[in-house]
Each structure stands twice: as structure tokens, then as C-alpha cells.
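Homework help board

Subject: predicted structure for assignment chain

Our instructor gave us this sequence and asked us to write out the predicted structure in C-alpha cell form, then describe one feature. I got the C-alpha cells but I'm not sure how to describe them. Can anyone check?
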Amino acid sequence: MNVVPEKTQLETATLVSFRICPFVARAQIVAFEKNVDLKTKFIDLNHKPDWYLKVSPTGTVPGLVLKDAFIFESTVIAEFIDELTQASLFPDDRVQKYLNKSWISFASTLIQHQYGQMIASDKAGFSESRSSLAGAMARIEETIKSKPFYNGDDFHIIDAVYAPVLYRLQLIKEKFGDTLIDDFPAIKNWATATIDRPSVKAVLNAEFDAALMVHLEEKHSWLLSNS
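My C-alpha cell output:
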């Protein structure tokens, strides 16, 4: 059973990203789970500030700006936050821990295809990305053996990592009528439990939805225009 750690404050740390980034969401969710008070700053990806480009070797987000250091890559940031307090958000079993890490890496594949589906400018592009997403979902579906979360009763980093994908799958169903998630019962059950998690609700909510809709409109999304 997950135990809420005592409040930890990173007074000199700032998590930098943009509002709808699925990669920053995982770090924010882990911070909520570990009761870490973490400041977040959103930037315009089309006009990245010079100060950020100076500290980030890749220029990508998210990045965690510390007093005397800069940590980048979302999974690394999530693990850094996890290790600030006891009761790790990784399974105790060593093999299961590294299986989780393997499938955490795979999450980027789903994120890529899902984003392609959402911003596709025509039906052909939408269908191609949707098909690729379904194929990736089939691979993770067959690995899910537990409920309500990926490893069972306890919420782990892998759940935080997949939360943005699961949330968007449900959002796409509710707003646009695309029932892809219904084709994968294990993922659907996982999504239901994960989306209902307080830490996930704190990050992925109506404010996020509104920002995402604006982004899709700017991208001339076929999904948005045909809903």
C-alpha cells in the first residue's frame, strides 16, 4: 500500500516545460505522489528563452533546474524526485523493477503515435497514426496481469509515466467519440484506476483539456475539425 511521505520542498528547483507536455506530467505526478513541493514553469516552445537554451544541452523539455545543476530527460527527473524520500515508487522485486523500466521506455512509442493521431491534418494521417497506436497498445495490453494498477494495488512510476497516454485515450473517446480504448480491456481498466488517482487529477484536468484543445486548433487537427 502506498504511504504518503512527509512534505519535501525543493526550494531552489524549477521544473520547466509546456502545459500539455506528457513528459512533464509524469514528473509532476511523481512529485505529488512523493509529496514533493516542486515549482513548475511553462515556456513557449516556439520561443524558448535564452537562459533555458544555455543550461539545456538538448533544448528539449522537461528540464529540472537546480541551484547548481540541470537534470534533463523526464524519466531521469521522475527517478530523481522518487529518490528524495523513502518508499520508492518502483517495485521491490528487482526483475519486476527493471521490467517496469523497460516498459517505461516503451511509453514514448505510444506518446508519439497518439500525438500524431491528434494533430494529423487529414483523415489518412489520422488513420495511420491511430493504427500505429493500436499496434503499440496491443503490445502493452498483453503484459498487464494485475489490477487496478500495472503492478497491482500499489501505484508506481510506470503508472505515472503512462497516465498522460491513458488520460488522453479516455479524453479522445469522450470528446471525439473515438473508442479505441474499448478494444483493450486491460488498458481500459488500468486507465480508469489511474485517471481517478488524486495525483493524476491534480495534473491532468479541465485546465489541461482546454490547453490541449487550443493546441489542436492551432495544428488544424482533423480530429478536432471532424468531431
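Reply (TA_rk): Your C-alpha cells look well-formed. For the description, you could write something like this. The chain has two domains: 8-82, 94-225. That's the kind of observation they're looking for.
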